[in-house]
Amino acid sequence: MHRYLITSREFYTDTPEIFRQILQTQLEKHRPSYALYRDKSTLNYNNLADNFIEVCSKFENLKSFIHQHVDLAKELGATGVHLTSEQFGKIELAKNLGLEVIVSTHTHEEVLRAQKLGADAITYSPIFVSPDKGEPKGIDDLKELIAKCDINIFALGGIVTREQVEMIEQTKAYGFASIRYFY
Predict the structure, then answer these.
(1) DSSP-derived 3-state class of residue 155
(2) Per-residue pLDDT for 101 more than 90?
(3) Which of 83, 115, 126, 168 has the greatest number of beta carbons closer than 10 A?
(4) Cα distances (angstroms) measured from residue 30 to each of 24, 44, 53, 121, 163
(5) Alpha-helical runs (H) found in the chain
(6) Where along the chain do its domains lie?
């Protein structure tokens, strides 16, 4: 099962030197196959995204993704872009630029739409209780979704323990994504 590490300003900071050090340590410790630079509030986004790509490039077989910014992902040489559930219209642009595309989804309909529009993968959330993310979908809903689509699904939301990862593994999901699991 693939592991998708997602950064957060709260843990990684927005100070480039500290950010790089924490990211390097977490990538070495957890060995994810995917990593996402995500920070919705920093004014230093492009610089930190550049630092993120540089650190990720040191890890063989690690796919690096930039959140929301298609052009920046292309410019920095990221593997791809992770689009929000409000950015379905950018899937084709990103694909035409040679980027892999992951889309955040929260309903079965959104998952099927992302699949139809050519996304490579989706995150589906929240699976478990997660701060400010609404009612959890649960494992049974995830299994139902997996049975009705062909797109790679990363379970997301409230995944903080090895037991939760094991539950997701039993669903045959492509992988799981998390911020807090990778602390």
Answers:
(1) strand
(2) yes
(3) 83
(4) 10, 26, 17, 21, 16
(5) 9-12, 16-30, 45-56, 70-76, 91-96, 108-116, 139-148, 162-169
(6) 2-182
Six-digit token pair at 152?
A: 């790679």
Which CATH number is 2-182 given? 3.20.20.70
**How remote is the C-alpha of 64 from its chain's centroid?**
9
177 forms beta bridges with 4, 156
The reported pLDDT for the residue numbered 131 is 78
C-alpha–C-alpha distance, residues 34 and 65, integer Å: 8
How far is residue 8's CA from residue 63's CA, in Å, rounded to a whole number?
18
Q: Give the pLDDT confidence of 11-47 residue by residue, as tens digits.
A: 888 899 999 999 999 999 999 999 999 998 888 899 9
